[in-house]
Write a structure and sequence with these properties.
Elements: E1 16-17, E2 24-25, H1 26-30, E3 34-40, H2 46-64, E4 67-73, H3 77-91, E5 99-101, H4 106-110, E6 125-130, E7 136-142, H5 150-166, E8 168-169, E9 180-182, H6 188-194, E10 200-203, E11 206-209
Parallel strand pairs: 3-4, 4-5
Antiparallel strand pairs: 1-2, 3-6, 6-7, 8-9, 9-11, 10-11
Helix pairs in contact: 2-3
């Protein structure tokens, strides 16, 4: 089975695939914003059901961040439609985002979602963070048995967007509002322009600055 393995900084391949909301072309769907593409091993499985319900409830948070979500399972559209009914009922939500029907494993193979030493048919739990430049900003992969922490996924989006906009990174256990670090590629002279309020030099390589905000 042919597989692609994307690395951070790679261009995420475009595709067109059927979904629970009709045909989806990735680049067109994302528009000028960010995207989260996340895979599920199979329809009507317990962990996936809880995850898709959680995402449905977080759609307003993704929207605040100009981020669209796109799920994937290797089952077909008819199966997705029936599964969504179960998700809505058991998770007290309304799934209003697309679930790709990847019966031919086209997208799974493009993005390396199938790990043959785990299972040669079903996808692992992969999360791809896609930037407006179509580049892969981050990727997280979980085994089939471990449900994802979507609060962490939101946190990663916030961190990525801060770096894209302000040239800062986020330290260990950072949360929104916490101090950031000036990235090493920004020297002190450039930092004076970018951070006129100053920063705390703990070490020459560790410069802490209050989280920047858009004016």
């Amino acid at each position: 089975m042919s597989q692609s393995y994307l690395r951070i900084g790679d261009i995420c391949p475009d595709f067109t695939q059927e979904s629970s909301s009709g045909p989806i072309t990735l680049y067109e769907y994302l528009g000028s914003g960010y995207g989260i593409l996340f895979s599920h091993p199979k329809d009507k499985t317990p962990i996936c059901t809880t995850e898709l319900g959680r995402v449905a409830k977080l759609i307003p948070e993704f929207a605040k961040r100009n981020t669209k979500v796109l799920a994937l399972s290797v089952d077909g559209v008819a199966d997705h439609v029936e599964w969504i009914k179960d998700i809505n009922e058991t998770q007290s939500c309304t799934v209003n985002y697309p679930i790709l029907a990847d019966v031919d494993r086209k997208v799974a193979n493009l993005y390396g979602m199938i790990h043959p030493n785990t299972d040669s048919v079903f996808t692992v739990r992969s999360v791809f963070f896609i930037g407006p430049d179509r580049k892969l900003k981050a990727v997280i992969t979980y085994p089939m048995s471990t449900g994802r922490n979507f609060d962490e996924i939101i946190r990663v989006i916030d961190s990525i967007q801060l770096t894209d906009q302000f040239k800062v990174g986020t330290p260990s256990d950072w949360k929104v509002g916490g101090d950031c670090v000036i990235v090493p590629s920004v020297n002190d002279e450039a930092a004076k322009t970018l951070f006129p309020g100053g920063w705390n030099t703990v070490r020459p390589y560790l410069r802490m600055v209050p989280q920047p905000t858009s004016q």
